[in-house]
Amino acid sequence: MKGDKDMDYKIVEKRAFKVVGKELQVTTKDGENLKRIPKFWEECFQNGFYDKLCSVANGAEIFGVCMNDFSNEQFTYIIGTKKTDEYSSEEMTEIEIPSSTWAVFESVGSLPDAIQKVWGRIFSEWFPATSFEHVAAPELEVYPQGNSDLEDYRCEVWIPVVKK
After folding, report:
1. By the 8 A CB rule, do 135 and 57 touch?
2. 76 touches 64 (CB < 8 A)
3. What's the start-to-end Cα distance of the chain, in Å?
4. What are phi and psi of 128, to 5 degrees?
């Protein structure tokens, strides 16, 4: 796919799994989500939640999960990681990510700008130009642990899809 630059993607199948994390209710009205979600990440860094989550993750990726009904301009955003059998916390939300077919897009660059551009391109360029439809299931941002301020930081956006 070409826009201002190539938009590489891959299609993968993934079995269901559980995520534990902290949630935020946010609106898309007036682009509020583009401001509030980065602020939520910053709050989680500052109050120690991110470090706690990384210890639970034990080196695994951290997720940003977008879920619920997007049609009313509201959705739930969760900063979390894959739940392990030995971990449970009443202070964290637990959700199940269903088994799905995913379109996976790479984001390269410092956050949040790089990933916000990828999100925009997925819906403005990729969906209109492909034979895939969005499935009503959670969407994922997949963040390897590392310095997300670097210009070469790599993460991914996972969108649940089905062939038209």
Report:
1. no
2. no
3. 18
4. -65, -25
Sequence ranges of the chain with CATH classification 3.20.80.10: 1-16+98-135+147-164, 18-97
- For strand 154-163 and strand 139-143, is the pairing parallel, antiparallel, or unpaired? antiparallel
| Cα atoms in the 13 Å half-sphere on the side-chain side of 67 | 19
Cα separations (Å) of 92 from 19, 31, 89?
10, 27, 6
Question: At 5, is the pLDDT very low, low, confident or very high (cuts 50, 70, 90)?
Answer: low
- Please give the class, per CATH, of domain 18-97: alpha beta
Q: Residue 4 has what pLDDT?
A: 55
- Spatial distance between the Cα atoms of 98 and 32, rounded to a whole number of angstroms: 27
Q: Is residue 67 a contact partner of residue 75, using CB atoms and an 8 Å limit?
A: yes
Domain 1-16+98-135+147-164 has CATH 3.30.360.10: no
The CA distance from 8 to 123, in Å, is 14
Tokens, residue 147: 């310095």
